[in-house]
Amino acid sequence: MIEQNTPSAGHVRLIDLPVVTDPRGDLTFIEGERHVPFPIRRVYYLYNVPVDAERGGHAHRDLEQVVFALSGSFRMKIDDGKTKSEYWLRDPRKGLYINRLIWREMDSFSQGAVCMVLASHPYDENDYFREYDDFIAAVNEGVK
Ligand code: TYD
């Protein structure tokens, strides 16, 4: 399930999760170090997000995350410091894995969207790059 040779920084990829379909409804499950490539140390979720809200606008020194649209949809704009891309998350069976040194911005939330994030570490404000220039400097220096 977990791909080998994943770069240690500046990398994103979609992860397909298992689904158990049933006439009573679909069931998806996630196990740390099996479906996501790290032990899950924190879970948080965004909800009641205004449709015109913009979230994110930061990168992380060490944190790895997987982001899901559990309900509704939203856009994730991804920037590794050299190349920009975007992902529309709308399928609760697909997560976007984001490793360290990725600038991310989120917008275009649908009404009632729920975004769940699995994270590799507890919350630590010192792990954030909140200034884009600081993030770019870290990418250029190959900072760990
Ligand atoms: P932030 O990560 O900037 O949110 P987003 O990227 O979704 O826009 O966090 C917003 C605020 O919430 C900030 O004050 C830090 C706080 N926070 C925690 O206390 N714990 C957490 O696990 C997270 C993700 C945020």
Report on the architecture of this protein:
- It is built from one helix and twelve strands; from the N terminus they run E-E-E-E-E-E-E-E-E-E-E-E-H.
- Helix content is 7%, strand content 40%.
- Strand 7 and strand 8 form a beta hairpin.
- Residues 42, 44, 46, 55-56, 58, 123 line the site of thymidine-5'-diphosphate (TYD).
Number of helical runs? 1
Counting DSSP E segments of at least 2 residues, the number of strands comes to 12
Taking all Cα atoms into account, the compactness measure Rg is: 15 Å
Which regions contain 5 or more consecutive residues with pLDDT less than 50?
none
Shape: globular
Bound molecules: thymidine-5'-diphosphate
Strand content: 35-45%
**Average residue-wise pLDDT:** 95
Descriptive key words:
mainly beta; five-stranded antiparallel sheet; 1 helix; globular; binds thymidine-5'-diphosphate
